[in-house]
Write a structure and sequence with these properties.
Helices cover 21% and strands 30% of the residues. The protein has 73 residues and is of the alpha+beta class. The chain has one domain. The protein has a two-stranded antiparallel sheet with strand order 1-2. A two-stranded antiparallel sheet has the order 3-6. The longest helix is centred in the C-terminal third of the chain and has 15 residues, at 58-72. The chain starts with 14 loop residues before the first strand and ends with a helix. Bound molecules: zinc ion (2 copies). One zinc ion binds at residues 3, 5-6, 11, 25, 27-28.
């Protein structure tokens, strides 16, 4: 598979976006940490350590940031 964001150039993909499934090269890859949660007593969300790897293309990363900002507001 090749990087979608490099198209029409062909750069081999090193990862896949976890949301849209696009192939990504190291340059277009957005890697961050994500904490899994579980719901404790009285619906309290608790984060679990260690964090999991969160791989996104730049477009999905931007969309998720926009969603996170909406949630925080
Ligand atoms: Zn690329
Ligand atoms: Zn994506």
């Amino acid at each position: 598979m090749n990087c979608l964001d490099c198209h029409p150039h062909t750069t081999p993909a090193v990862a896949v976006c976890g949301r849209c499934g696009a192939g990504l090269c190291a340059e277009h890859l957005v890697e961050s940490e994500d904490h899994l949660t579980f719901t404790a007593v009285i619906n309290r969300e608790v984060q679990v350590s260690p964090s999991v790897r969160h791989l996104r293309c730049s477009r999905c990363a931007a969309a998720e940031r926009a969603q996170a900002m909406r949630k925080a507001a």
